[in-house]
Every structure is written in C-alpha cells, then in structure tokens.
Known about the structure:
Layout: H1 20-24, H2 27-37, E1 52-57, E2 60-65, H3 77-97, E3 123-130, E4 133-140, E5 152-157, H4 164-174, H5 187-193, H6 198-212, H7 216-247, E6 254-259, E7 262-267, E8 276-279, E9 288-300, H8 302-305, E10 311-312, E11 330-331, E12 336-348, H9 354-363, H10 371-400, H11 405-419, H12 424-441, E13 444-446, H13 450-455, E14 460-464, H14 465-469, E15 475-481, E16 486-489, E17 500-503, H15 515-526, E18 531-533, E19 536-538, H16 541-552, E20 562-568, E21 576-583, E22 591-596, H17 598-601, E23 605-610, E24 613-616, H18 619-634, E25 637-645, E26 651-660, H19 667-676, E27 680-684, H20 689-698, E28 708-710, H21 711-716, H22 719-725, E29 731-733, H23 737-749, E30 754-758, H24 764-769, E31 772-776, H25 782-787, E32 790-792, H26 799-837, H27 846-857, H28 859-864, H29 888-912, H30 921-941, H31 949-952, H32 958-976, H33 978-984, H34 991-1018, H35 1021-1030
Parallel strand pairs: 14-27, 14-30, 23-26, 27-29, 28-29, 30-31, 31-32
Antiparallel strand pairs: 1-2, 3-4, 4-5, 6-7, 6-8, 8-12, 9-10, 9-11, 9-12, 13-32, 15-16, 15-26, 16-17, 18-19, 20-21, 21-22, 22-25, 23-24, 25-26
Amino acid sequence: MWLYKHPWRPTSSSFGYIPQSGIAGSGNSLFNFLRNNYTVSITAVPFYIPKTYFFKRRKYVFLHCWKSTLQFHLLKFKTTVIVIFSAVIIVVTGLFLLSLPHLHGVFEQVPAPWWTSPCPWPIMEATAFQSGTLYLVASFLAGPISELVPNLSFQVDLNTGLSEFSVTQRRLAHGWNEFVADNSEPVWKKYLDQFKNPLILLLLGSALVSVLTKEYEDAVSIAMAVLIVVTVAFIQEYRSEKSLEELSKLVPPECNCLREGKLQHLLARELVPGDVVSLSIGDRIPADIRLTEVTDLLVDESSFTGEAEPCSKTDSPLTGGGDLTTLSNIVFMGTLVQYGRGQGVVIGTGESSQFGEVFKMMQAEETPKTPLQKSMDRLGKQLTLFSFGIIGLIMLIGWLQGKQLLNMFTIGVSLAVAAIPEGLPIVVMVTLVLGVLRMAKKRVIVKKLPIVETLGCCSVLCSDKTGTLTANEMTVTQLVTSDGFHAEVSGVGYDGRGTVCLLPSKEVIKEFSNVSVGKLVEAGCVANNAVIRKNAVMGQPTEGALMALAMKMDLSDIKNSYVRKKEIPFSSEQKWMAVKCSLKTEDQEDIYFMKGALEEVIRYCTMYNNGGIPLPLTPQQRSFCLQEEKRMGSLGLRVLALASGPELGRLTFLGLVGIIDPPRAGVKEAVQVLSESGVSVKMITGDALETALAIGRNIGLCNGQLKAMSGEEVDSVEKGELADRVGKVSVFFRTSPKHKLKIIKALQESGAVVAMTGDGVNDAVALKSADIGITMGQTGTDVSKEAANMILVDDDFSAIMNAVEEGKGIFYNIKNFVRFQLSTSISALSLITLSTVFNLPSPLNAMQILWINIIMDGPPAQSLGVEPVDKDTLRQPPRSVGDTILSRALILKILMSAVVIISGTLFIFWKEMPEDRASTPRTTTMTFTCFVFFDLFNALTCRSQTKLIFEIGFLRNRMFLYSILGSILGQLAVIYIPLLQRVFQTENLGVLDLLFLTGLASSVFMLSELLKLYEKHCCGTQRVQTHHADV
Length: 1031
C-alpha cells in the first residue's frame, strides 16, 4: 500500500469527517470503520493519519502504525488512550489476517466513488496555486455524518505533472485506465448451455429410452454423437466470442499527458488519477478530468447526456450543487472536444469514472446482429419449419408402414439435427469476424461488422485531400510578402535543416535581415500551437511546417517573447485562427496574429506591410495577392495568408506562404484500380480551385477533363439538380462540413453507396452520414475515429483497395458456405424421405446422420468461409444492396448438386440392397460412405462459384485441405476401427469399393466444374459479368 501525502492538515472542522463511533467507541468499532471505508488508495481515507504506511503482501492488507499514530486534536487524555489502544488492535488484527487466507480482500470492499452518483448536496471546493502546485479538494456534506462519501484529494504539480515513481504507486492503487469485460460465466457453463437445444434434448431422451429397453449400444452411440455435435457447436460459439474480444482491442485510444515536465503521447489506459492531460480539438476525453485551464472549450457530451448541443466548459471553482454530469469544470471519459483547448487533472479512471457505470450497464446488453446474420436467421427459421414438416411426414409414413416407432423417432430427430442449419448464423458471424481480423493484419480496422457487408456494394468513394490523398507532411517551399518579395525554402520535414533564400538574388535570410520576410515568419510562429520535438511535430502538420520555417530562420524562440492572452481557434467554417498577445519585455498595446485562407484573412485587413511600415491596402494590392495565391495554388501548394495588428478589423496584411503536401505513395495506383472496379473516386477539399485541380491531376482522378464544383455552387443548386450533377464532378473545392454532408446526401439519393474518407474534426459529420466512414489511424482525430466505421492504421489510402476486396470476398465466401450446407441438408432430407415413401429401409442410421452433420457444420464447412480472396474479385463491379445470399443462380446450383448427390447415393443404396430388401451393414456402410464422399467433393467445388479448381489451386486454402483430409481419415476410422464399427453399425470395405465410391462421388465435382467452364467460355463476357454480380 502506498501513502499519498495529504495537501492539508486536519482542523477542528475536519474532525466531522470521522464517525463518532470510530473515535469514542471500542477498537472494533474503529476497525470496522477503517475496513468499510479504506480502499487500496489513501485518497479514499477521509481523515489525516500522520506517519502511517500501508502495505500489501500476498494480497492481504494490514496497517502498521508507529509512534503516536493518530492525533485527533482531542483535549481529553482518556480519548487519546482509547485511540492508541484502537491502533494497537488494528496492528494485531492485521497480523492475524495473514494467517486467515479465507479473509483475503476484506479491506478491498471499495465504496462507490463520489463521481458515480448524483450530488444533491452543496459542493465546497477549494483551489489554490502555491508555487505551481494545485491542491484540489472536493468535499461533500450530506445528511448524517456517518454516511459520508469518501473525498478525493491529492497533490498535483501543473508545471511538471507526475513523476514515473508516483505513476507506478498510483497504478498499483487504482489499476489501469481500462474496463475489464465481465466474463464471469465459466467455460463449463457455456458448454452445458449447448444442451438446451430442444433437438439435443430429444436425442438424449431417445438415448434414455434405449437404456430402458436395454439397447445399450444404441444408447452409447447416441450419447457419443451428441457429445461430438455439442462440442462442435461449442467450439464455434467460443471461437466467435474470442474473435469479437480481439476486435475490441484493435483501436486503443491515446492522449497527451504531462509527466516529469515533458508532454508525452501515451495510451489512455496508462493514465492514473493525478495525471495532467492536455486536450485539443478533436480529442476524445481519456478519463474523468477536472479542468484547470480552458480556451473556448466546447465538449460534445451527446454520447453521455443525450443532448445534441455541445457544452461550454470552464476552469472556475463551483459553489452550487446539482447533477454531476452538469458540472462545467469537469469533462468525462468518452466525450469529445469539439472546439478549443484545455488542460486538467485526472480524477477518475477505468470503472471509477462516470463511463464505468455505463460500461457495466453495457455489459448486460447483447451485441446486435448484422443484417446478414438476421437474414441468415430468417433463412434458418424457414428451413427449420420446412425440415420439421418433412421429418414429421417421414415419421408418420414410417409409423403407418409398421416400422419401429423408437427407431423412426431417433432417425427423425437425428435428421433434424443434421438438416436444420442451426449453425448458419454462427458460421456467418465467424466468417465476418475472421475477415475483419484479416483486414486488421493488413492495417485496416473495421469497427462494426455490418460494414463488411457494405464494402462490396461501395460505388462512390469521396475523399478529403489533406492527410488522406496527400501525406500530411507539410513543408513550406515558397514565400511571398505583401510588398512583393519572393523567397524559396529548401529542406523537408521538421528537423529545421534548410535555408530561406530571396529570389532572384539567392540571398540567405536569417532572423530579421529582411524585415518583411521576418514579420511574415514571426506571425506564423506566434499564431501556432504546434511543438516540434525530436524532429516530429506534436500538433497540426500545417502549424508544424510554419515552426520548421521559423527554425530555418533562427526565429523559433520568438514565440517565447510573447504572452498569449486569448486564442480564437481555427474552424472549418471561419477558415482562420488568431491569437491575442503582448510582448513580455515592453509595455505595449496588445497585438493580434492571424493565419488562414486568403479570402477570409484579407477581410480583416485595412493595411499591408511595406518594409515594416503599414500602408493602406489598395484594390491593386488585393489583386496582386489573389494572383499570387492562384499561381501558388496551380503548383499544388496549400496557401496560407498571415496578418497582424492591434485589433481584428484593423490588421496589416503580411503575405503568403506556400506549403507542399505531396500525394501519398500508392494513391494514384489505388485510384486507378478502384475506378476499374466500378468505384468512382471524388475529392472534397477546403483548398482553392487551382490547388485542388493540381492535386486531382497528380493522383489521376480523371483521365479526361477534370470537372470541379465549389461549395458555393453546392449551396446554390436545387436539391434534385444536385443529385444529378454530383455524379459527374470529380473535385469539390472550398467546401465546409455542411457542403460535404450535402454532397454525400445527394450521391445517396442518386442510388450510390458512398464511402467517405477523412481525418479531421470537420470530416466527422460526413463520415457519420456516409454508408462507410473511413478515417486515418495516425493523423485522424478522435472525433473522426468515433464517427468512422473503418480506420486505416497506417494512413495508407491504398489499403482501401484491400478492404473493398476483402468485403467482396467475405460475401462470396458466405455464399459458397451456404451453397454447400443447403445442398447437403436438402440431400439428407430427400434421401430419407424418398426411402420412406417407397417403403425402403432407412439408408442411414441415426449415428451416421449425426456424423454427416459434423461434416456439414464442422471444419470443412467453416474452411469455406476463410477461402482467400481471389485477385479478380476487386475488379468485379459493386453488387447491389438489394442482392440476397440466395440468388436465383445460387438456388439452381444448390438444387443441381442436391440432385446429383441424391441420385448417386440412392443408386448405391439400391445396388447394394439384397433381394429381400433388408438393410445390412454393408448396405448402410456403402450408402453412408458414398454420401460422405459426395459431400466432400461438393465442398471442393463450392470453393468458388466461377473459377475452376485448377485456377484456384489445391493448396491455397490450407485450412480447407486439412479439414478434408481430416474428414477422410475420420470416415476411414468409422469404417475400419472395430469400436467405431459397433457405434456406427458399419463394416470393412474393400479398396475397389472405395475407388468405385470415389469415382461416383466425383461426378458432382465434375459436373459443377463443367458448368463453370461453360459459363466462362460459351456465354460471352457480358453474361459472365452479370453472373459475377449475381453470384
């Protein structure tokens, strides 16, 4: 146990925190008070104990108190004696606990934290800054003093944050800032839950009847089959659960935390109470935080309170009461910073946060099923009703024919287990999840399973430019001052290496050797929130480029000459940001520095800089600036305007900087492949027309003339006309979030399935509205990650190709699996039905039917769901959203395979049946083996609906290969191992028998392959494409 020094000393008023029974009562009374109120952190102790240390050994807690351990400022000697005596009792009791393992954890009964409950009582809060240290004390008074809620109090240094030693102490006390899923249900219970299936219970009932009739071999056989079937189902469900758990670990949240005087980028799970956290626009709040510094901070708490309007936050102490969620100086884990910046101290982590209560409730809720799963559920129920009808008919006809009722009942139930595709939704889930995990290995994270289904339907991809199509590695390459000086900048990245040279003289500029250039660079440095550390930028890349420019001119320290008094943060609507500052060394009036889009910044300017002298901004000067912006934009540069002055509206225009943001590697190739596969790529950016067109041409958005549309045009066009026009436009420029939303809605109204990529706060609305929202893992803000359905971990645009390819492949694999399972179900049902109708012995017994069910729902079937995606899949056109799994073409193929399997199996059954029509072990063994071989050959051809097995390759899907070999070995074991012969009622077959059955069963494979060959070579290209879209 670790001691946290209290930042306050007890006063007479503080004694009210200790229940009177704990002071004046017996030692046991005080001990009970400590036991019920101490948690594993001293921060929960509601009174002061000097020189007390807490230890935790072998998970047992005891108190070690030395010298005068407790002083309560009581004047009476009798009370002091009682307190000391109580302390002795505590020590003795603590040592005694070491010998009582069954009392483990007696001190770890943690009361509910104060921030997880509404607080109707007044809040007394004291904040005091002493030598850079914040003493944060939150105390609550309510009702009887014995019902006191433990207060939170700790010492935090706002200038340096916590030390690593202190972090380690607090982590031992409070644990990691994360939630542990409640997996309280043991594995054995999950296994036993499989026996709740009514069909399984019926089979067990059949086994019980066999015991009562002294048919012990039948009872053992049925029991063994039930165990195998239940185990297969359990493994499927357990695998699905574990895969979903893996999905929850793919997107770890991050934060900026001050520790040991350095701002560090950490995983949010590493935070502990007392950490100083920096918040900026787009961040997700990583823990419950008491704000200590705020700049126009607006927080979206809609996920928490349900209110759509963002909440304005303050760092002022509170004196009123109310619901904790309404406190304006606290931000809560999981909410999002929509505007402004802030800093604060962590007061709640993990399950001790407000979100912890929500998480506990969330644990009780089941994960909703995807549309595809629901579709499979409906299909399964329809097939179940159909199967029950057929099975009931079989049992009725058998009974009327005088067959043994128990035998018919057992066969009927076994047939129900085999024919009803109860595992269909589970296998679909496993296939979806495994596909998502494969995407994760390719550095693409899919947050929601339904998106996997939608990926294959994507017909339009709208992309933000900066950070998505471009690398977001900004470098200033050109400068133009307001009085006409041109300069070029060498060097790339954020290491500060390079020079600034005047043109055409090539004179190297340092500091203010050229006043106009110096003032321009100074404004970019001061109106800046980025920090460059170890050649990496912490903050916006655009601001990082301006800081690197200042480093090249030895002006990076000029920012420290100013005291910032106010900041107006950047927003995509206003397209500029400004700071209000004053010089530290001079008593001068305040000065504003502004940067942003030229057309917005110049509106606030009345003067322009001419060698350090402000002159009136004339129309000619404005025209010169606009021409320079157009010239720089045509080179693909991002152009920023800078200005400074005593107040907004009376600024002095300083000039322009041109920033290059090169296209990402592989973007051009990805755009080309997506276009060939029927996905139209469109760029939506806030940049000027010239910059947007230059980037569009560089990445190959259009082979012919590039069509562009401005945000103003989007506003001016009628809704119906906009839906017709947006499909023909490749580039949208000077757009805001509302324009992006309008464009996406218009595309959706035209029938397109729209994917949207972006990484900024301004992209969040569009990401959420799109059918598929895609954001960047490294440069994407927490807001964009929250809104998106898919995250590109490495910010690699070309990874979208892999995602679309995988999405299409998963859908086709599910169709392959459905084809295999339904053709097997129909064959099994039809085989038993026909033999019963024609008054023939049952070709398969109950154990054999259950074995077929294991093959149908087991590894061979599941391996079809993980078939590697074919390389031609991406080039197939997007499928329609209305396409169903069971298309007409697929139903015909299912029926064709079923007819071949039924015909071949009945032929063997009829051929091996003796003249007296009696069922013999050889008859059932040959029929059973024939059906299983048919099943395996059918699985082989179901690997692809369009490609021949020689084109796919036998070894590409290793899991399928192993499952087929395992099924063959299992079938041979059933035939040749004596113990299994008695269970399955089989006998040995000769080599010629096996060769004959193999040749016959291969007919289903050969016929399917010939059909594929016919479709490929004889139906023409157009029909093949249509077939791809359908199948």
